[in-house]
Every structure is written in C-alpha cells, then in structure tokens.
Amino acid sequence: MNTTEKKLAVITGASSGIGLELAKEFARQGYDLLIAAENPGVADAAREIRELGADVREVQVDLSNPRGVDELYEAIQATGRPLAAVALNAGVGDGGDFAPETELEKDLEVIDLNVRSTVQLTKYVVRDMVARGEGRILFTSSIAATMPGTFNAVYNASKAFVQSFAQAIRNELKDSGVTVTSLMPGPTETDFFRRADMEDTKVGREEKDDPAEVAREGFEAMMAGKDHVIAGSFKNKVQATMSHVLPDTVTAQMHRGTASREENAH
Q1: What ranges do the domains of the chain cover?
Q2: 115-159 tens-digit pLDDT
Q3: E strand or H helix that includes residue 113
Q4: Catalytic residues, which ones?
Q5: Which of the chain's ends, N or C, has fewer CB atoms near its CB within 10 Å?
Q6: CATH code given to domain 8-264
C-alpha cells in the first residue's frame, strides 16, 4: 500500500458478485482498497480493480474461521492507514429442507460466516473508527431479513440478525461520527444460487438484478449516511413492504413457493 491521500476501504467477499462490484465502485470514487475472499479469484479481482486506478491489496482468507478474521484485521493494521470505510459483504447460503436435507456442518458455516465473522470484524474496526471520530460501515443484508425463510431457514435468520445488528449499532453510534448502512438486495445475478444449491428453485431460475446496480445503490446510500437501502427492482421494495404488513405465517408460506424444489419441479 502506498501513502497517497486516497482513503482506504475494505471489502469482504470481493472476488465476485456484489462484493466485486462494490470494490469497483469504491475504486471509481477514488478509494484505495484491501479486498478479501476465500477463493483464489480474489487475485483476479484485484487485477481488474487496479485497472480503475486504485491501489489494491488482496487477502485470500476464510472468514468463517475466527482466525481468518484475525488475519484480515492484521492485514488492515499492516497498511498503517486509517480505515475510512468497510463493506461487510461476505456471506453464504444453503438451501433445502432443514430437517432431512441440509447438513449441519453447512448450516453452521452459514452462521459462522454471515453472523459470527460479521460481529467479530465489526468489533475490531469500529473501535478504531470511533476513536478517530469518523468512518463508514456498509453491511450487505438482504430482503431475506424481512421474512421467515422456508427452505432457507438458517440463511434468512442469519440476515435477520445482520439487519437487526446493523440498525442497533447505528443507533449506538449516532453521535460518534461513524455511520452504519444496511444494503438489502433481492435476488441478484451472482454465484449465490449455485453455491446454495438453489438453481432448480423458482427464485433460482427467475430473472435477477444486476450486481453492479445493487452495489452502486449501496455505495450511494452509505455515502449519504442512510440507515438502509432496498436495492434492485421495484419488486424487492414491494416484497419488503408486504413482509411488514403480512403475518409471518403468510410470508413463510410465500417463501416456500419460491424456494421449494418439490413445488417447482413441474
């Protein structure tokens, strides 16, 4: 990392999808970057982002492991630069019927990455931001946070945690100079559905939002200091609104219709 006057941002889950597009958006807006992902594709992402004029360092690290979060924070500290912004985007899902189908190991991986690592990394970086009296935090939540996730039970619950966590610490930090924003996309054209084994579901087959547009909306909301943004199509906004009006029993049944393999096999 050089010692330019550019601000430094960290983006997790940055090898593809929304994370990669967030990193590009930060680069286009004049930030230098430290990007992290668990797979070797993070090196290719770094090369792509450097073409936008940013100084980029990549870290291949498994954030579902507590030690991985420690390694990332050590890399942040090693830059010797204050962290202006962090986008906590790393996440994973696991679709299927909880009782007979999903594996406990994968369910716990969803919790470890989506929940535990988010809390751990936030704890590390927010203290430094508060001490300086400035900083921006962007959480990638989801409209999944607004409803029970039938056949996505652990994933939706993990995003409900992220959403609640983000809004709570936003209020705690309201006089600190540190802003907290939650990015809530709907189904987006990323690798999520393949990794979650959900390509044969209704939601897996339908048209999805552009991750670049989702990232742009998230970045703009963060810079404006908004509490959250429901990104992507108008349908996402309708769905989020309905979830606040309808009882959980109804939204759980609605989610069943989009995420069930059996009910979408014909």
Answers
A1: 8-264
A2: 999 999 999 999 999 999 999 999 999 999 998 888 999 999 999
A3: none
A4: 155
A5: C
A6: 3.40.50.720
